Amino acid sequence: MTAERNAPEVTQLYQEISEELRQLLVRKIGNTKQADEIAQTTYLKLCRLKHCRDISNLRGHLFNRAVRISINHLQKNHLIAGCKSERACLVLKGELKTEAIKDSIAELSDKTRYVFLLHRYRGLRYSAIAKHMEVPVTAIESHMNQALGNIQDAMEAFSVMDNRQGYAH
After folding, report:
1. What is the rounded CA–CA span in Å between residue 59 and residue 45?
2. Model pTM?
3. What is the 8-class DSSP label of residue 107?
């Protein structure tokens, strides 16, 4: 699928959620003009994706991408590095991390998200999940690897920032 063919689908989604996205970005960044710019940049980047239909949750992907662009924006403008206190900076980064994790989980396919939630939040072992879903344990391992990889990808921007700023986690 070409980027041109993505545009109508992405445009419709963006029109539906643009105000919600904008409000989230204003809360996180504190600047309406910059939030609008980041929302627009996110929209344009998503329009240019060549594999848009491969994304199981386009809405979650759009929000996740906007949060990542916000992090880069905050870093470039030294808003995170220049927080008045280390605690305020950590709170802001914590909120952004939470949003990124939630979005990365929302991006998962239904089956992968189900496996992840059963394991992480219900505490079920892989073998119990495999038995419940009537699939091999290797399928459960594959779903978990995919889920954890998605979350790890979402957290990469934060680890780069932590390394640059000397924070330890």
Report:
1. 14
2. 0.53
3. T
